[in-house]
Structure formats: C-alpha cells, structure tokens
Design brief:
Two copies of one chain form a homodimer. By secondary structure, chain A is an alpha/beta fold. Chain A has 14 helices and 16 strands. In chain A, strand 14 and strand 15 form a beta hairpin. In chain A, helix 1 packs across helix 8, helix 2 runs antiparallel to helix 5 and helix 3 runs antiparallel to helix 7.
C-alpha cells in the first residue's frame, strides 16, 4: 500500500468511525431537535451562499469536458432551492419511533417492532453538489449519520456545502460529526468504503448506471439500488383513443430525460390503424421520433406518416430523449410477454376500458409500479404521497419504487417480560 | 473455461431460467392451490421415505469426517417431521395479495401497495437435507420459485427429497419446475449463482458463519443474511435477584448451541456480591464454566466459587457451548457501552425493576431484539408469533431478527387512474 493510499484510508476510517459514534446520539434525538437542526442548516446554507458559489465557480472552471456542467453548476436560485428543500424535509413526519405489529403472546410477553434509524448511511454519488445537501437532510431527519463521497469534480462545492451544514449544526443538539464528507479523490477509497461493514449500515448509490453497477458489484455493505427505467405503455383493444393519446403523449414528452418516461408503446392490432395516426399527430408537434416495427410502420405509412424502422436494439432501450419505439401486438398476452422480456421492472402502464384486462395487467406485470389509465411519469415520491423521495428503487429487497423517509429506517423487536423463561 | 465448468454452468442457467418461468405462474396462484400442492408434497415425502432414507444412508456412508453427521443423518422420525413441517406451512396465512398503504391522491389517482412474491429465491446451504424441504415449502407458500444448492455431502439425500417434492407437485397446479436442485458440486457454480441477477431476485444463505461471509463477499444478487449471535444479559442494580437468576440460567442453559443463547452476563456492582453466588449455584448443577473478569472472580472466590479468569478473547465471543463470560460493571452506561463494543446486534437483555433503566436499554441498545425481564432464548419466529421462521436476520435491510413468510415477499405499487397525465 502506498503512503498516499494509507493516509486516505485513515481519512475514511476516522470519518466513518466518527459518524458511527454520532449515530448513537442521533438515534435518541427527538423530532423537534432534529427539525431545529435542519432549520439551522437551511439558514446556514443561505448565509454561506457566497462561499458556496465561489467554490462552485472554481469547480466549474476546471471541470473536464465529460462532466455535465449544468448539473455541476450552482446559482443563487439553486442554493436557495437547496435551503428550501432542507426546510421541506424538516416539515415532514418523522418515521422514527413508530411502534407496529404489537402483540401479546400467550406467555404474557409483549412483543412489538419499533422503527429506528439504520445508523450510518454511506452515499456515493457524482458531480452533483445538490445531492450533498439533499441526502444529508434526509439522513438527519431519519436519525442517521451519513458518510458522503461525491464526484471529485464537485469537491470544492461539496466542502463549502458541508462547511455550511456543520456551521448550522454547531448551534444545535445534533453533533456536527453526523455529516462526514470524504475529501480524498482516490478511487481505491470508494472500493474500501463499499466494504466498510463495521461502520456503514447501508450504501445508497445516487447517479448513473455505471456508478450503480460498480456499487452492486463491489459492495459487501447492503445496497439500496436505484436504476434504469425501460417503461412501456400498452394501448389495449378497448382503450379510449383520446385518453390513450393523452396518456402516451404525456408519458413520453413531459420530461423525456427521466427514468419514468415512456420508451416503448405497444398497441393492440384491432385499434392500431385508428390510434397510431392519432399519437403520431400528437407527437408531430414536439417532434418525437417513432421507431416502428414493420406492422406499425405500414399502418403509419398508410396514414401518410413517416417513421424510422425499429431494429432489435430498440426493444428494451431506455432512450432518455424524444424517441419512442412502437409495436403492434395481437393480444394482452403478447403485450405482457414483451414487457416481461424487455422491461426493467420500473413503471409499466395499460390504457384500457376492460376491467379484466386491467386486472390481469396489474397482476401479471412484475414491476415496481404498474398503472391503469395513467401516465408512467407519475412514478415519483411526491406524486405517491411520500413527501420527500430518497430515490426510486428497482430492487425488490427492503423497498421498491419511490422510497420515502421510512425507507431510510429499519426496526428493532422490543420484548417486554415479567420474568419469562423459555420452556 | 474447462468443458466441465461449461456443462455445469449450463445446468445452473437452465435450471434458474426454468425457475424464473415457473415464478410467473406461481405468482398468480391462489392460496388454496398452493396449500393443496404443499399437502401433496407432504404426502409424497411420506410415500418416498424408503428412497429418501436409502439415499441418505449412502450420503452418510461416504461423508468425510469434518461433516456433522448428526445434521446430515435422516431417520423415520426426521422424515415424518419434514412432512409435518410442510403441512404446518400449508396452514399458515398467505401474505401474498395483501393491499396496504392505500391512498387517494388529490388528482384522483388511487395508489396502493400490493404484496407480491420476490420471484426466484436462491438458497445456498450446507449438508442438512431437512433445509431442502423446509425452504422449498416456505418459498412455494409465498409464491416464489426456488433454486436450491445444498452441501455436496447431502446430494443424494437432496435428490431423493426433491424427487418426492416433484412427484407431489405433479398432481397439483404448481409447476414442478418451481423447485430446482443444482446437482453440480463445482464450487465455481456457486460463485456464478451468487451473481445470477437476471434470474435470481434474492439469495438466502442458510448455515454457518463461513458460508454466510462467503455469500456476502461474493453476491451481487441482494442477500438476506443471517448471522452470529453474541448475546448479553445485563443484571441491573434494581434487578430481582431470583428473577435475574432464572432468566440468565435459562438464557445460557436451555439450548446453549443456538444463536440466541447467552454469551456474556454483565452485573451491576451494587448487586454483584449477592447475585454472582446465586447464578453460580444455579449453573453449578449443569455445569456452566464461568469466565470472570477480576472483580467478578474476587467476589466469586469470596463466596467459595471457582471460576476461570476471562481473557480479552472472552468479550464478544459466541460460545455455542456451556461457557459464559461474567463481568461486573459500574453503571447502566457501562453495560450499554460494553454491548455496543462487543455485541453482534442479535439479542440483548436487561433484568431490572427500574422503568427508566429498562426504557434507556430498549432505546439505546442497537440489536435486532432487545428484551426487558425475559430470556434471550425467546428470539424465534414462533415465539414472536410469526408461525414459520425463515431465519433470523442480523442485517438491517428488508428484515431484522426473526423473519416470517412476509419477509419472503416484496410489494408493487398499483396505480389506478381515469386518464390522468402529469402536469
């Protein structure tokens, strides 16, 4: 091990150990105490705006070309937005302390579960400084300490933001050591962080597919993963043509760059000749490029609409842009089979007026969110009523789909006896 | 890749793909259909007793000395017990299909969560043939297909048991392919199985610490881990001496070889001179070897009781035998700190008549199960009212402590609209 790596290893161990120690205190804090600390952080973010923007300007000035500068750059509005988001988290209900599944056993033992923080959450993310403030607030609200490791291109911005957070915490009952920023930019350190089971209770990767894949492949700390969304909408034989057009248009066009945006539309043969020209007309104004299978292409051509022929790569592709694959299917079964083969388990929708088809679709499609007669763009913590969103999970363990504050907690079993021994 | 590895790789991929296909059918089956299949399996296990025992005799005859033959060997009673256990699983409530967290959003969307199977569960275990039948029943009940990979020393037993399971399923509506046994004994195959994310939704290791550690280190499929229990009981200053003696005796002696058995007892200084001779007298009949810190050793010597001096290795050690570490502490804080340092997050208890001490212990000790005035040996699915127990989780993600059938499921978000699009 080189001396440099050794020093950086020490930074990780020291900061993770300090976070663990802080987590013991954090777990016992009242909701009020945590909320006051969050409000103090919001004020400190505003008070440090000049320092944060200056640090960010330095980061932007030396950012390599591969970095999405728009996501790295902070402005007055963005810093104000960060502060407002922290205040919004303060206003949410605190899941910690909830008692559930309580029972009395025949031997008199009172058994229940109590919701508690994880302890220490590790967050690995890219050059997006707003994530620093966002996840720190979510973790503190749920009584978790946090070890942050952001993209090195945002290091100065992150330092300035965490300095503000620490200044906010300094006047509160939350220990400053509850929020730790790893300053080393050594990649070997991330590898070690992913395996730091003695200090980290869970790892949350926030970012693109490469980051998430690397986390899954290397972590021995349990991971809450988020991931790609290859989203289908199936327009059933019985669909209302106008409703189907509105929903599919929205699912693609509202925000094409997010994970719940439509990628492929499947349409039943019996309605395709009517509906395909309708959606093509709706999309023509945007415009959306349609990649059509041969049958859809023929029907579109008959209606005088040009499209691109779909290739094998179009099925199961997440476009994140104004492109949609289009395919004609002969039945609900064919639609479900196509989704099973090419979906990523994120968000899938059917447009139908047939209750039986709706019910089969909801039952048989295996995805985090299944929709009837609504746009897949609704897959979102706020839209589902969760308040803050920690992310959208595409795994099945612990949490699936939009994750709220509750998903940043675990539980302990509490057993109260009067001297019981087990026979 | 050698030809042999290639062939074995194919076995894994073929069987895992078949399990995935079966999981689609399984997820839609009614509780009645699954229960009838389980009852048919129980009958088939009884009908195949001779074949199962003959296969097991072959396994036992060639088992290497390192294998715990008592755990490998089947008898008439054990086979009958396996069949009874399958019937017991049939009688439990089915968690699949439960609807929860249902809300209506301001835009009219009806949003709820629906409990669904994981899909395919991979189980990696040691040379314990009863696990084969046990986990297959738990998985089928929860609508999951299962890929089993047991210790190679039990292969013939496992083949015979799975043959019986398949024969039971043959007359049912559950596809036989829902239960897959990997016959290859190549260790490289286990490594690949742990990374088979396209087919396996979760991996459950069942066995000793080495197996679990290897699973955690190598799996990219999400893991539900179970683990070691280093369990403490703290006898508070205010404890009832007789109750404390009964509870601590039971926690150590009832079954010393299981993970919830007491390893270390901590006793408050103010009660130690009275209580230590009492527990020593109670344990003397067993006998339990006491490994005492200097202060406890002095107090025991004054009462004429011999003990072994504790060494640094005794703190945090899981004995799984009739040995207990004993330590005098000066305060509740010292007890909690000791548990924080040396506990494994499994089961921890306090004996006290002081509500404030009880409350602090329950709040501040970070473990899957925290007890007041009861034996840690109660940490068990049946004792907590779960019916069947899938295992005892020592991780914080998804499930903590005893896991019931519900912990073998996940959920999907179901969103029912009337044409809503997102603004």
């Amino acid at each position: 091990m080189s001396l440099e790596t050794e020093i950086k290893t020490d930074e990780l161990l020291e900061k993770a150990a300090a976070a663990k120690a802080a987590s013991v205190v954090l777990a016992q804090l009242s909701t009020d105490t945590k909320n006051r600390a969050l409000e103090a952080i919001a004020r400190a973010i505003r008070a440090h705006e000049a320092q944060i923007l200056a640090a960010n300007a330095n980061d932007c000035a030396i950012a390599p070309p591969r970095i999405e500068i728009d996501r790295l750059r902070l402005t007055h509005e963005r810093v104000a937005g960060m502060a407002r988001d922290v205040e919004a988290v303060a206003k949410l209900a605190d899941p910690v302390g909830e008692v559930f599944d309580a029972t009395s056993r025949p031997n008199g033992l009172k058994v229940s579960k109590r919701r508690v923080p994880f302890g220490v959450v590790g967050v690995v993310y890219e050059a997006r400084p707003n994530v620093t403030c966002d996840v720190a607030a979510l973790c503190l609200k749920t009584g978790n300490a946090v070890v942050l490791r952001g993209g090195k291109e945002a290091l100065e911005s992150n330092r300035a933001i965490v300095a503000a957070i620490h200044q906010g915490l300094a006047g509160s009952d939350v220990p400053e050591s509850a929020v730790q920023l790893i300053a080393s930019t050594d990649r070997a350190l991330v590898q070690r962080m992913l395996k730091l089971r003695q200090y980290l209770d869970v790892i949350v990767p926030r970012g693109g597919q490469g980051l998430i894949q690397a986390t899954i492949e290397n972590a021995t700390v349990p991971v809450i993963e988020t991931g790609a969304g290859v989203c289908h909408t199936y327009v059933d034989a019985s669909a209302d043509v106008e409703m189907a057009t509105r929903i599919v248009h929205n699912a693609k066009v509202r925000r094409p760059t997010i994970c719940n945006a439509l990628d492929t539309v499947l349409v039943h043969r019996s309605i395709a000749a009517t509906w395909l020209p309708a959606i093509a007309a709706s999309w023509a104004h945007v415009p959306v490029e349609m990649r059509a299978d041969p049958e859809a292409a023929r029907l579109l051509a008959s209606a005088g609409v040009a499209c691109t022929p779909a290739t094998a790569e179009d099925w199961g592709k997440e476009y994140l842009s104004l492109v949609a694959a289009v395919k004609v299917v002969g039945s609900l079964d064919e639609a479900i089979d196509h989704i099973r083969m090419f979906g990523s388990g994120h968000s899938e929708a059917i447009v139908t007026s047939d209750d039986k088809a709706a019910s089969r679709f909801l039952n048989e499609v295996d995805a985090a969110a299944v929709f009837v007669n609504a746009s897949t763009q609704f897959t979102d913590g706020a839209e589902f009523g969760l308040g803050a969103e920690v992310g959208i999970s595409t795994q099945k363990l612990h949490a699936r789909g939009p994750m709220g504050l509750r998903e940043l907690t675990t539980y302990k079993w509490v057993i109260e006896g009067t001297g019981q021994t087990r026979p």
